[in-house]
Design a protein that fits this description.
Elements (H helix, E strand, L loop, with lengths): L1 E2 L3 H13 L6 E2 L5 H8 L4 E4 L7 H10 L8 E5 L16 E4 L4 H13 L1
Parallel strand pairs: 1-2, 1-3, 3-4, 4-5
């Protein structure tokens, strides 16, 4: 599952993942996020921090606090934050990547999360 408000980035990540035989659900805002996660049951979530309707870190906290979704690995992505300053209320993602990012690095991080 990919949550990214920039349509170009969302499309690129989706195409790359689909080319690797992943089934991808893309969202461009955080509305009804937990419902979408429950319906899609993703193996991994790639989530931007800066979304038009909510801070992605708030969604991450919500996801990690629910027993039914806390096990899902999350890769946070951001152009504004970095790996040392993006956490909110002590909740951190399973991994972090700054934008712009390298496609090979993205795939390496996704596969590492799936193996964890």
């Amino acid at each position: 599952m990919v949550i990214e408000d920039n349509h170009a980035i969302l499309d690129v990540i989706t195409l790359i993942l689909e080319s690797e035989a992943f089934n991808v659900a893309g969202l461009n805002k955080g509305a009804d996020f937990i419902e979408h996660v429950s319906e899609f049951n993703p193996d991994v979530i790639i989530m931007d921090i800066m979304l038009p309707d909510i801070d992605g870190r708030v969604l991450l906290k919500e996801l990690k606090e629910k027993d039914s979704t806390s096990h899902i690995p999350v890769l946070m992505i951001s152009a504004r934050y970095n790996a040392t300053n993006y956490t909110l209320d002590g909740v951190s993602a399973d991994d972090f990547m700054a934008k712009p990012f390298n496609i090979d690095e993205l795939m390496d991080k996704i596969y590492a999360l799936l193996k964890a």
